[in-house]
Amino acid sequence: MSKSNDMEVQRKLPPLNALRAFEAAARHLSFALAARELHVTPAAISHQIKGLEENLGVELFLRLNRGLELTVAARACLPRLTEGFDRIAEAVERLRAEGEPGSLSVSAAPSFATKWLAPRLYRFAAAHPGLDVRINASTRLVDLSRGDPAAAGEQSTLDESVVGIRFGNGSYPGYRVDKLFAVSVTPVCSPKLRLAKPEDLHKQVLIHDNICPWDAWLEAAGVHGVDTARGMRFNHSALALEAAADGLGVALGISALAATDIAAGRLERPFGLVLPLTLAYYLVCAERDFRRPDVAAFRSWILEEAGAVSAQREK
After folding, report:
1. Between the N and C ends of the chain, which has fewer C-beta atoms within 10 Å?
2. Are 83 and 97 in contact (CB under 8 A)?
């Protein structure tokens, strides 16, 4: 397609504000929630969508007594439109990061960022006082197309942040990858529960997250008859660990993420069995960014921190 034709396609775009209004309303199936997200009134959302339908000559919503329903045409275009706005947001965030001197953007899952990375960042800050680290804590940044199991059903690229910390099998073709440390899991709970042996789990509430496999640990421990279908469920490991620290039950926690709370006495490991998983945490960055001074500094620091974790595990 020629340059002139490209410009013609661009001119045919409807107003972006109207597209934003439709995308938000379609995600929420609510004009009120879309209005809250975009900081406008529901009437403004309705007006934008009506204008968009007239512009496109396509009906987007079925207004029913019980609420809104997307038309076939709207359902077909919504995923790409959402992806498009996500990409725009990512590009703007990257521009902001590039515009801030001495700033390095790092993405990591919320639980890793909260329980492992954040408690250690003061050491990096002390060693590199002129370099600010921006932590983007979001499971949405996981790239499932490359085999990462977290945040099922969501996809993204690794380009939103310069450096990514990923939980997976280490297969990220086209990226520079460093293994931080392997992952193992073990039951953790509040010291107030006073558990003595794995069989005590029959009388406890099991706390689940989206990663740790209770069935596998119980089988390895030789404990049978525990109903793993029941219990409390959280979509982030950090939330499961907090619930365990509050005495709400027993979580099967990732050892490295639980270490800070164990050292503080908020959690304890009541049993000795630690189950290794086949997955690990990895540091991932694009080849083009690998030799950047800020990336090199962060990489050197986090590999040293991760090495300390592995060394502690071997003692």
Report:
1. C
2. no
Rounded to whole angstroms, how far apart are CA atoms 223 and 214? 11
**Per-residue pLDDT at 161 exceeds 90:** no
Ordered alpha helix ranges (H), the chain: 3-11, 16-28, 31-38, 42-56, 72-99, 110-112, 121-127, 214-221, 237-245, 255-263, 293-314
Please report, rounded to a whole number, the percentage of residues in the chain having pLDDT higher than 70.
Answer: 84
* Residue whose structure tokens are 């972006």: 16
Return the number of other C-beta atoms located less than 10 Å from residue 195's C-beta.
19
List, as one string, the DSSP characters of 110-134: HHHIIIIIGGGHHHHHHH-TT-EEE
Structure tokens at 196: 């003595």
CA dist list (Å): 192 to 17, 155, 180, 204, 248: 54, 40, 33, 13, 10
pTM score of the predicted model: 0.62
Distances (CA, A) of 25 to 53, 65, 84, 265: 13, 17, 16, 46
Length of the chain: 315
Report which of residues 8 and 69 the model is more confident about: 69
| The token pair that represents 167 in the structure block | 């939980």
